[in-house]
Design brief:
F-box domain-containing protein, about 25% strand, about 325 residues, single chain, alpha/beta, 10 helices, F-box_AtFBL13-like, FBD, 13-stranded parallel β-sheet, FBL13/AtMIF1-like
């Protein structure tokens, strides 16, 4: 049988290899002399070696030699530092670091980087996150979770950022104020120092209390174009029903189309919030309730919640309700 693959140019072979796990890509180096170093030219590398210094040195060597690397996903472990050369790879478009250690980063220059995801990182110095972000000003998709608390004064904004998924204690919301899509754990009062003029989709959590109710409304006032809302209302205590505010934020009355309540328990606060949205969202299309597992398994409680919610008045004639179990 003819060896058709060997007739392909290196560029085609590298493109094919880019769809394989890096371990399998490296294994092709034993096929022949031609394949021995070919894997080093693959534009995508995915390393999941925990605390392995040998792999770290190998990765450093590959990065120094490569002129076409575009995608890196690393899980190095918390005892092996991500090679500093990663942060000066000027061809990188995607960088994802997970469960890794950052130290001794002297310079960051990633001018082509569009996607940056940072998860569960240990930072040897408190300013390393700020240092990493400062060299990635063209990022369009940013995710930062579990990387520790960083001071808010040192960050640069991202003028091209479209999507952000962040811990508010790690990254101040002010630097992502231009995004269209935002997922965060909390939005604090001190975060509302700017307007989110481009924001059309927001996901966050708030507390079940009178201050939480007023705070949520204040958040809406800072998101004038919001169309999709995913919210989790946390708390265990039942509070008395609060009076509805006299004013309605513009995004609710003119733009909101989809609202989803995550981990819905059927508390008085949650019910009042849902009722408020349905009464004031003139262009609402979908009102979704992701019911918490405990309540969903209780058939009678679930049916009572659905009955009460279904009886709520809706301003929008096109608004439909959906009910599902939280995954």
């Amino acid at each position: 049988m003819a060896d058709i693959i060997s007739d392909f140019p290196d560029s085609v072979l590298c493109y094919i290899l880019s769809f394989l796990p890096t371990k399998q890509v490296v294994a092709t180096s034993s096929l022949s002399k031609r394949w021995k170093l070919l894997w080093r030219s693959v534009p995508s590398l995915d390393f999941e070696f925990q605390n392995n210094e040998i792999v770290s040195h190998l990765l450093s060597d590959v990065l120094r030699r490569s002129s076409s690397l575009e995608h890196i996903h690393l899980q190095m472990g918390w005892f092996t530092a991500v090679p500093s050369v990663v942060f000066i790879c000027k061809t990188l478009v995607v960088l994802k670091l997970d469960t890794s250690l950052l130290e001794n980063i002297s310079f960051v220059d990633l001018p082509l980087l569009k996607i940056l995801h940072l998860y569960s990182l240990i930072l040897v110095h408190c300013d390393l996150l700020q240092q990493c972000l400062s060299g990635c000003l063209n990022v369009e998709d940013l995710e930062v979770k579990c990387v520790g608390y960083i001071t808010r004064e040192k960050f640069h904004s991202f003028p091209k950022l479209v999507r952000a998924k962040i811990d508010s204690c790690s990254v101040p919301l002010e630097i992502v104020k231009n995004v269209e899509f935002l997922v965060t754990d909390r939005i604090y009062k001190e975060d509302l120092v700017c307007e989110f003029q481009n924001l059309v989709q927001l996901e966050f959590a708030t507390l079940e209390c009178s201050e939480g109710w007023l705070h949520v409304l204040e958040v809406f006032r800072h998101c004038p174009k919001l169309q999709t809302l995913v919210i989790c209302i946390e708390g265990n205590e039942e509070e008395s029903v609060l009076p509805y505010p006299l004013t309605v934020p513009t995004c609710i009355s003119l733009h909101l189309k989809t609202c989803c309540l995550k981990y819905y328990r059927g508390s008085a606060f949650e019910f009042q919030f849902a009722e408020y949205i349905m009464l004031n969202a003139n262009y609402s299309q979908i009102m979704k309730f992701r019911i918490r597992r405990y309540e969903y398994k209780n058939l009678m409680r679930r049916q009572n919640m659905i009955r009460d919610l279904s009886s709520c008045s809706k301003t929008s004639d096109t608004c439909t309700q959906s009910f599902e179990k939280t995954i």
